[in-house]
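Worked problem 6 (solution included).
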Amino acid sequence: MRALFSIFLALLCLNANAVLKLPALIGDHAVLQRGAKIPVWGWAAPGEKISIAFKGKNYSVVTAADGKWNMQLAASNAGGPYEMKISTAEQSITLHDILIGDVFLCSGQSNMEYGIDKNLYIKEIQASANPEIRQFKVNRQSADTVRNDILLHTGWLSASPATLARFSAVAYFYAAALFEKYKVPIGVINTSYGSSLAEAWISREGLTEFPDFLKQPKLPSEQSNPTKLFNAMLSPLTHYNVKGVLWYQGEFNANRAFQYRRLLPALINDWRKHFDKKELPFIIVQLPNYNKIQPQLSGSAIAELREAQAMAAIMLNVDFVSTIDINANGDLHPKEKKPIGNRVALMAQQLIYHEKIQASGPRYAALKIDGNKAIVSFTKRSGQIKPVDSINNFIIAGADGKFYPAKAITIKNTIEVFSPNVPTPVAVRYCWADNPPDVNLYNLEGLPASPFRTDDWPGLTAPKNTKPNKP
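Solution. The predicted structure is:
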């Protein structure tokens, strides 16, 4: 009897494996990436012939011995809606309402995950109906080993007043701005997890330079464990063709900001490897101002995390946007997500769509000392500085490393910084605090300067034995 039961179970498993199955991402209402080959994959019985009909063309492939199949459909211009039929000799699946446009992966922790504030953006919600803006939401989940599909998700949803509560606010406003500019379907894949650590989003092989992560005991919160979110929420997405990545994370890594200088590039390289795109564009949302307003003289781990985020922008096809001015109440989760989405969309126009536009606020380039004045200059891509009588949030120090509040004024497209307490300056810092108040350093396009420092003295999060890079 037991033998017969075992045979029955085996037959059930064989039958289940033989069922034609598609990954969660490839379903009704999906947005596929334009201008590039379209990957389609799934599972069926070994040796089974898979046929696909899409946009008047037919494709076929034979399922491998492990039950997996995949093929590349021809690149296509933006358009839709279309139907796609996938079939075997005995089964068929027809997908409806497929669009072809631009697809972006949006990830991070809660500030990427959070929805649109219903009170702040009433008009935007009411006007949100647009069948060409869509989101695929990956729900929170984790796994000890790599999964081949997303188990918990919403499927593809079109933007509307009824569905917008399920959208990432940053991702929606980003998509809306790009749609307004290019008038092509925009799909966003939102895979985010509140309070998550960066190392949770990196594969095991991607953490080889961080052996301590792989040795640490399992933590009670799944989003804090290395590789666990990668396994469940990222790896199953990597066969899909995406145009770029938006990354908004770092709050929970701030106490290890010095390490983040290596960790964030490791994540970018790891994802590029798994998506098989060596130059996959990444846009980083630099952490906004939050926490209580405090004196800037004692240092800030959050400022050091912002610095680490900016450092990643030296990588090819990586850039960041500053949000140091948007958080009116200093909350960990700022409600003002529209300016963030708009700034990221502006950066995408420059970095990904190669538009010749001003997409960044002023960025530090060099420091020159002239007597008791420290003269700060900015990169060519900073644009023209908006003149004001006095610029807030500068501090200045001499060789003793002790900082004092400073006066800062614009002279042409430079800033002169000085203080009677520092007759011989060697370093200045700008917005070097958790929540610098009354930010007022912008370019003429209204984009804020990103926080910076001209010194490389060890910060709050640097290891004890860290030495400056320069004598």
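Discussion: Residues 1-16 have pLDDT under 50 and may be disordered.
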